[in-house]
Specification:
By secondary structure, the protein is mainly beta. The protein is built from two helices and seven strands, in the order E-H-E-H-E-E-E-E-E. InterPro entries: InhA-like_VEG.
Length: 145
Amino acid sequence: MEHFPYQDGLLVWYYDESFPDNNVGDHCASGRCGGLYLPVDAHPDLLIRPDNGLMWRPRMQSYDSTFGLESTDRICLHTTSTVSACYGGLPANPLFDDTKSYWVAPDASIGNKGWSSVPLPGTGTTIRVVSTSAQSSFMQVHVNK
């Protein structure tokens, strides 16, 4: 069982009423990836397993999904009892901008079914993390549309 920290920060969710549910696998298989209510990944680059060249499960992919002012923590993931690979230490991403892509299209060769993050509509909405309290219990954001 893997234990690793999810990152502190702002988790942005995209709500899309054109989907009846969150069965992303079914929707992607029919040609349009997405779901009713899905998180946006601030660091969408896929984490690839060194032992087989496939991506790690979405639960691992989403550890760094939050937007914020601090770089991501470094994590190490295992396949059995040995360390397989370490990831992280990525730069902070304080700006959500729905005109940018935070989604990686499906790629069967690496096991990516399009389930990590979500395609966005590009309405021009931005959310910027401006500050956080010393205890990380409060966050100031600016929202523009």
